[in-house]
Amino acid sequence: MSADTLIPIVVSSVGAATPLIYAATGELVVERSGVLNLGVEGMMLAGAIGAFAATVTTGSLALGLLAGMACGMALALLFGVLTLSLQTNQVATGLALTLFGVGLSAFAGRDYVGKVVEGMGGISIPVLSDIPVLGPLLFRFDLLVYGSIALAGATHWFLNRTRAGLIVRAAGESPSTAHAIGFKVISIRYLCVLFGGAMSGLAGAYLSCALTPMWIEGMTAGRGWIALALVVFATWKPWRVLLGAYLFGGVTVLQFHAQGFGLSIPSEFLSMLPYLATIVVLVIICRDPKIILLNQPVSLGKRFHPDA
Length: 308
Fold this sequence. Notes:
The protein has 308 residues and is an all-alpha fold.
């Protein structure tokens, strides 16, 4: 395979992986605090339409990205009120949140179908961007691609090297103990849920304003569920989320290039590849429960109320 063929595939894979990194990293922090939010898909869709509508209306991509984050946080706040304050079942509430986000985005996006925005251009770094092969592979991506890598590193540092990260992990491992020594577990979980919503909203915003700068109903196409699977695949480790996202991004892009390589594979099967890869990876990982239990927060998905 020549460099002229390989470079576009790698660049496309990195772009496809970027929204997965944001959504999965946000959900990882949520789950490390002991909360399981299955509404990532709905929050991504809300962020996608919110960002696109704001960008079309104001002409500012920066305001669009902020609007996408705000929309994701709004749905996350709704989830937090229901599960943390009203103590509803987290799994059922997360599924309902996804259904709500799908319907809300479809309704809100009716007037934006067929419209396009300028999108986000890559950053050209003098000298470095002109290096053969390495230039296009490393130094011509947009700001959010580099931001996703920085986010993974910052999340790893936060969870493992800071007192606040230790408190978040304590809330996920033993909330009753954390409460007993004076930490406000519910408040901590609220902050983590809002952070996860902001990152899911940003992931959706990247889809509608950068990766494919247009609004299409249901444009996340299951990426929120893949992001959830990535957290398990990464065994709740931020750097592994980065690796897994690029793996799934590569599988996603492969479906668009496979037939160009002369492979006589039905297009329907190629469209299944990202989801098939998700199932295969989860099956392989879950064959050994020790791998999952090694880093899984002990209180993940379990309701906690300080007065209980």
